[in-house]
Amino acid sequence: MAITYLLGSLTYGGLLFLLTSGFCLIFGIMRVPNLAHGSLFMVGAYVGVAALRAGVPFALALLAAGGAAAILGAIFEAAVLRRIAGDENAQVLATIGLAFVVGDGILAVWGGNPYRAQAPHALQLSFRMFGAVFPAYRVAVLVIAVLSAALLWLLIERTRIGARLRAGVDDLQMTRALGISAPALFTGVFALGSFLAGVAGALAAPIVSAYPGLDFDILPLALVVVILGGMGSLAGAFAASFVVGGLYIVGPVMLPELAYVVLFLPMAIVMAIRPQGILGRSAP
Amino acid sequence: MFRRLGLIAYVLTLCLGIARADEPRLKIGLLTIQSGPYSAVGDQMEHGFRYYLEQHGQKLGGFNVDVVALDTAGSPATAKSKAEELTQREHVQIVVGPIASTEALAIHDYMRDAQTPLVSSSALAEDLTQRKASPWFVRATSATGQLSHPLGDYAANTLKFKKIATIATDFAYGYEIVGGFQRVFEDNGGVITKKIWVPLNATDYSSYISQIGDVDAVYASFSGPAAHNFLRQYAEFGYKDRVPLLASHSTVDESLLPEMGDDPIGVISSGFYSPTIDNPENREFVRGYRERYKVAPGFYSAGGYMAAALIDSALTGFKGDVADKAQLMQALRAAKIASSPRGAITLDEYGNPICDVEVRKVERKDGVLQNTIVKTYPQVSQFWTYPAKKFLADPVYSRDFPPLRSGDK
């Protein structure tokens, strides 16, 4: 049983990291609390399911899901968010509004019944370990999460684009003064964050299904991770994903009456005593 | 010339108006869900209701029917304001719906005060026809426990299970469906070892499933996407082939089956309806509905259809005034359905159907999943075999009632 919890926590943590890395990136650089992030995740789940049904191989379906979310995200940024840059209240309201628009759009296209996605055939089996049975697909999700964390780290720490992004986080005005185009940077960041959300949605679809309401079921988890990990800190998000994954899996077993408290109380405590998050830097 | 034509036209419309006014019409308001995550079930209910009207020339009991459908979005507060709109502005004579029990409970007192008949098409909450029964309320479907009591009997006496763990969504419907199952199963010698509750918006069930422990079977109740994810993870974590699964009707509803793959095969559930019920009315209903909506009717579709059927049979031979809601209500309370897709139905003194309950098993037939009927419990009361007075003296089923008799908490 313990092994089920351990594997469950790790694999759910991996899924959470995929979900929150994009949110984190967008918030870290643009300071936009993108409450439509769950919607981009949901779009990814639906597009992934649709692509798989059209006979597209799994890896391509992930890219298609990420691509669709990235395009949608880029449009959001260019058409709406750019006009209200710097106004956090307006951004919160606008992104919530966009979330509702996306939710209804999906309802119009796909209807209200849940859709099931199939894991790739090779991963549909479950394996037995120390007397516990565990689905192989979830372990694959964990591996993908760790790989994409490594890729993101390389992108940000070792490439020119990454250097620009880091410069944008540290001092936006100075970055602009150095001649880096802020609109292009922002649209690019938003598209990348949305891409990650879309891929996460498609990867999650074989576990959570694609269904209306998935957006707001998943969004609070992203918020908890980001707040615990520290706004805009990818390393923090990575660590916090596994902490929240563990709380999510083990908490309700230990305290079945307090399933929500277990998840949200740590968040409230962190906000009260360390508002910048565990690994976050305090705002400049 | 034109003036004369105009005059003739005017007189003609007047005559038509009078002719129409002579023929009493029945105005029915639907409280359904047309937007948001739950719009699929709202659609199914509305389809079932409108399908019945289409099949009967837009008439119920000989009266031409006008339908006004309003969207509650599944929210109890909105349901209340829409109920007010239907009664005060639209002046409907009968309200059909709402979809969710929370909505039905939210408008229950208002409908009584507004003295407008409410025909429930799907809300199952026990107390609507039990501890909070209202003279202005009838159900066309059933109460929650009414559906799980028979399965408790079936699990103990036919399947001979001794130890069962339950796992269900952590809200009122889950408590009621599990409570009903537990009461009858334990009164027939079974033991519920554990009741596991899963939060409403959970996406991962592994940690809940792994608590099941050593049992003969599991009783589960989920709806919509939760049912999907639970059944899949029950299979993925190796329980499907090891521990038989019993379930509520909602867990394996017809609207979900086409997307479920092999996960639900073998699940035994109980419900008031299945497209496989073998009678002429049902064969015709399933054939026609499938042709019209490309899917077999399930719980909500049958609920909408039965609400229309109930009004139809209540008003057949109705001699009173349809504008008089008290007379309408009296007729609705006395409704008897001699034959329908789900068999014969009479109402008890609380306005709840006494009806057949089917035990079904999910099978794949001709490549399609279906709930095949394995046993019919005829003419089941919402109080099962318990005396109504004794049943009502107990509290309504909840997280802690009935309490576990043994096993760990």
Which runs of chain B of at least 5 residues are low in confidence (pLDDT < 50)?
none
How many helical stretches of chain A? 11
Helical/strand content category of chain A:
mainly alpha
- How many distinct beta strands of chain B? 15
CATH top-level class of the largest domain in chain B: Alpha Beta
Largest sheet of chain A: 2 strands, antiparallel
N- and C-termini, Cα separation of chain B: 89 Å
Order of helices and strands of chain A: HHHHEEHHHHHHH
Named CATH architecture of chain A: Orthogonal Bundle
* Residue windows where pLDDT falls under 50 for at least 5 positions of chain A: none
Question: How would you describe the overall organization of this protein?
Answer:
The complex is a heterodimer of chains A (284) and B (409). Chain A has helices at residues 2-30, 37-53, 58-79, 88-110, 136-158, 160-170, 172-177, 182-208, 214-229, 234-254, 259-273, and strands at 126-129, 132-135. By secondary structure, chain A is mainly alpha-helical. Chain A has a single domain (2-273), classed as ABC transporter involved in vitamin B12 uptake, BtuC, CATH 1.10.3470. Chain A has a two-stranded antiparallel ribbon. The model of chain A has no long low-confidence stretch (mean pLDDT 88). In chain B, the strands form two sheets. In chain B, strands 7, 8, 9, 10, 11, 12, 13, 14 and 15 form a nine-stranded mixed sheet that branches. Chain B has a six-stranded mixed sheet with strand order 2-3-1-4-5-6, sandwiched between helices. In chain B, helix 6 links the parallel strand 7 (163-169) and strand 8 (191-198). The relative contact order of chain B is 0.14. Chain B has twelve helices and 15 strands. Helix content of chain B is 39%, strand content 21%. At the A-B interface, helix 1, helix 4, strand 2, helix 8 and helix 9 of A face helix 2, strand 8, helix 7 and helix 8 of B.
